[in-house]
Amino acid sequence: MEKSHQSKKHSVNTSNFIDIWSVQCGECFKWRLIPTQEEFEEISSTFAEDPFVCSKKPGISCGDPADIEYDDSRTWVIEKPNLPKTPAGFKRRMVMRKDLSKMDCYYDTPNGKRLRSLAEVARFLDKHPEYQNNDVLVSDFSFTPPKIMEDTLPKKV
To answer: Is 60 exceeded by the pLDDT of residue 46?
Structure first.
């Protein structure tokens, strides 16, 4: 998704991992923190059909101050909408490259194996049919990295 008023962003801390999950309200455009990656992925997986609005967060309305401001105090990255929600037991990880050029995505499996491509996911599911029996499909995975918002990257000295 291009940078828009209904974008979803994460911030990246100095260790190059995402440390804050947030979404932007489709009505007032304020940023709302999402407490966990799992909750963020739930919102993200249906974002195009069901955009986030402040009233979806308990006790919050568009009249309340933003939870976080978009600025260059941290590096922000933006996800495409409607990425599949990570299957139960798996963990989607995104790591910024040291040169800040892009993020790499991978999945940790329940048995500790790291998957770096859809081909690896397919091989893993072939070797572990117990996950297929739980309705885990290759299409449940996305290695599409978020876009780094260059205006928030640290200034080079």
So the answer is: yes
Q: In what order do the strands lie in the sheet with 103-108?
A: 91-96, 103-108, 114-115
Report the C-alpha gap between 7 and 134 in whole angstroms. Answer: 32
pLDDT reading at 29 higher than 80:
yes
Helices within the chain (DSSP H only): 37-45, 118-127, 129-132
Is CATH 3.30.890.10 the classification given to domain 84-147?
yes
Q: Where in the chain is the domain with CATH 3.30.890.10?
A: 84-147
Give this prediction's pTM. 0.81
CA distances from 140 to 30, 32, 62, 81, 127 (A): 30, 26, 33, 14, 17
The residue with greater pLDDT, 3 or 40, is 40
